[in-house]
Design a protein that fits this description.
By secondary structure, the chain is mainly beta. The chain has a single domain, classed as Fumarylacetoacetase-like, C-terminal domain (Fumarylacetoacetate hydrolase, domain 2, Alpha-Beta Complex), CATH 3.90.850.10. 14% of the residues lie in helices and 38% in strands. The two termini are 25 Å apart.
């Protein structure tokens, strides 16, 4: 079973049920990949076998020659539900973490050109790398959070949650209209601009100031 750590008054392991991902949620990232904004969120799903937690290196897949990092805020659902109202959405979130939506960009580009699914580009082992999670009552204003991603000591991505095209409550409401959200579900909320390739021996650092500072080594 796949688990993540939730830091509250006591740290506990939470079993992960589903992994939902939101694409094209920052305008600058949409522009850097030459995509266009959508009226509704772009949603895709990763298998739980893609989940990767701290303590072990990220291993790049052999079936791709161009794996990109995409740093994101990740929600951990604590209370499931269907047709969740936006004004109630934050109460369904148990914790906040950071993650890497690793993407085999060469395979994704090929799939997009053919109008094919992205599963092999988004669902390989380690493609859903996450930090531990901070309980919601430790976060004052979740919609005002900012986070950083460093590659080999250089700042590559800076995420400002206020710049999301689809805010956190909207995402929870939207997903709950399509799927029945369950305790333990993870939601990757989209990446800001600055994505790029990973190589063996790289070191990725994810920072949510005051709460999370986690590094991952990369292996080929």
């Amino acid at each position: 079973m796949a688990h993540v750590a939730l830091h509250a008054s006591q740290t506990r392991a939470v079993e992960v049920r589903n992994i939902y991902c939101i694409g094209r949620n920052y305008a600058a990232h949409i522009a850097e990949l030459g995509n266009r904004p959508e009226e509704d969120p772009v949603v895709f799903i990763k298998p739980t076998s893609a989940l990767h937690i701290p303590g072990h290196p990220i291993r790049l897949p052999k079936h791709s020659n161009e794996v990109h990092y995409e740093a994101e805020l990740v929600l951990l659902i604590g209370q499931g539900g269907k047709h969740i109202a936006e004004e109630d959405a934050l109460a369904h979130v148990a914790g906040y973490g950071l993650g890497l939506d690793l993407t085999a960009r060469d395979l994704q580009t090929k799939a997009k050109k053919g109008g094919l699914p992205w599963a092999v580009a988004k669902g390989f082992d380690c493609a859903a790398t996450v930090t531990s999670f901070v309980a919601t009552d430790h976060i004052g204003q979740p919609q005002h959070m900012e986070f950083q991603m460093y590659l080999n000591g250089q700042l590559k991505q800076h995420g400002d949650i206020r710049k999301m095209l689809f805010p956190i409550p909207f995402i929870v409401r939207y997903l709950s209209e399509v799927f029945t959200l369950q305790p333990g579900d993870l939601i990757f909320t989209g990446t800001p601009e600055g994505v790029g390739p990973l190589s063996p021996k790289d070191v990725v650092r994810l920072v949510l100031p005051g709460h999370i500072d986690t590094s991952f080594d990369v292996e080929g």
